[in-house]
Design a protein that fits this description.
Layout (H helix, E strand, L loop, with lengths): L6 E6 L8 E6 L15 E5 L3 H12 L5 H14 L19 E7 L5 E8 L4 H11 L4 E3 H10 L10 H13 L11 H7 L10 E6 L5 E7 L20 E4 L3 E7 L1 H6 L2 H10 L4 H15 L1 H4 L4 E7 L4 E5 L5 E6 L5 E4 L10
Parallel strand pairs: 5-6
Antiparallel strand pairs: 1-2, 2-14, 3-7, 3-13, 4-5, 4-8, 7-8, 9-10, 10-11, 11-12, 13-14
Helix pairs in contact: 1-2, 2-3, 8-9
The structure holds N-hydroxy-L-asparagine.
N-hydroxy-L-asparagine binds next to β10.
């Protein structure tokens, strides 16, 4: 790894109706939002906490490891982070007080595995990988997923931390279920939403390894205080994650119901197959949501992140505030503010 001197670079990119302010925080003085694209290996992941996750993935990638191992190791960092209250252990519970986790993983051969509404198991992504590798199925849910995890050596543990229990008890006082936009981006949340209630967040990660193979992983505790049994887009192959080793991969974050309705990540990959750049493909997927549900689109966040077979990446979100982290040979701590977003309130 090269020197970790940090700098902040801001560039204004003019783009007619779109807000186009790119902010990059990087260890590389020469990097910019565009430079370094097209390199391999590379790993990208959603939100600021992607930086720490990318580091773990990078350790695998820089040692010529497989993208599949990289994404599993990477997102496990977010799953283990108790301060992260929307992924893995420490996640917010549903409205009945259960922490239920969703995750999926997909490799370069089109193999995939998934778990949904999994309770008491700290690393759902690793269970999802075992579903892929050790069963004839793609998806296990609820009790069945837990039984499978226990049979395969995972330990049962309490995932509800004191902090998340406290937040849930606070929420019970009003029982107001309204997703807050960009709650994952702490700077944005602190500035724009003082006293906010964290209520949604996911890590989606895509990696291209030195051999040119792609894999992806996605893991979350889903919407905070959701109905018991609710499953979002994150564990659903094609919605929260999709990888086609000939073309590229995509993942999503935000209000999962809208992503499921449009089969968002599959759509992004198929658009890249048609020649769209990663960013344009993400934009088209976001606009599909806007076209179908303009009223809902005003009040929610959905962000897509995509990486193509050439190592080029891009994102597009419904609202301002989406960020993602990038790590390759040139930049290891990069956080990019999603450059482009649709802002329904302004149109
Ligand atoms: C879900 N998509 O469960 C997830 C939540 C999320 O940023 O991504 N929040 O719907």
């Amino acid at each position: 790894m090269h020197s970790r001197r940090k700098f902040i670079k801001q560039s204004i990119v003019g783009a007619a109706s779109l807000s186009a302010v790119a902010t990059a925080i990087s260890c590389d003085n020469n990097s910019s939002a565009a430079k370094g694209q097209g390199k391999k290996p590379i790993v990208i992941s959603t939100w600021d906490f992607g930086v720490a996750a990318n580091k773990a993935a990078w350790e695998v990638l820089e040692n010529n490891g497989r993208a599949l191992d990289a994404v599993e190791q990477g997102v496990k960092v977010a799953e283990a982070d108790l301060e992260n209250q929307t992924v893995g252990k420490g996640g917010f519970p549903d409205r009945d007080g259960h922490v239920t986790l969703d995750a999926c993983i997909m490799d370069e051969l089109g193999n995939c595995g998934s778990v949904a509404a999994l309770e008491n198991i700290a690393h759902p992504i690793s269970v999802a990988r075992l579903v892929m590798e050790r069963t004839p199925h793609v998806m296990l849910v609820g009790q069945g997923a837990k039984q499978f995890a226990l049979e395969n050596g995972f330990q049962e543990e309490n995932l509800l931390t004191e902090a998340s229990e406290k937040a849930w008890k606070e929420w019970l006082k009003e029982k107001n279920y309204k997703p807050v936009m960009n709650i994952e981006n702490k700077a944005f949340a602190t500035e724009k939403l003082p006293g906010n209630k964290y209520n949604h967040d996911t890590i989606g990660m895509l990696a291209l390894d030195a051999n040119g193979n792609l894999s992806g992983a996605c893991t979350t505790s889903g919407m905070a205080f959701k109905m018991h049994g609710r499953v979002g887009d994150s564990p659903i192959i094609g919605a929260g994650l999709y990888v086609d080793n000939e073309i590229g991969g995509a993942t999503s974050t935000g209000v999962g119901e809208e992503v499921i309705r449009t089969v968002g990540s599959f759509l992004v990959v198929e658009l890249m197959r048609q020649g769209y750049s990663p960013e344009d493909a993400c934009k088209e997927a976001v606009m599909r949501i806007v076209k179908k549900k303009p009223d809902i689109a005003k009040d929610i966040q959905v962000g897509f992140l995509a990486l193509n077979k050439n190592g080029e990446y891009g994102s597009y979100a419904l609202q301002d505030g989406f960020t993602f982290a990038v790590c390759d040979n040139e930049k290891q701590d990069l956080i990019e503010k999603g450059k482009y977003h649709y802002n329904p309130k302004k149109s």
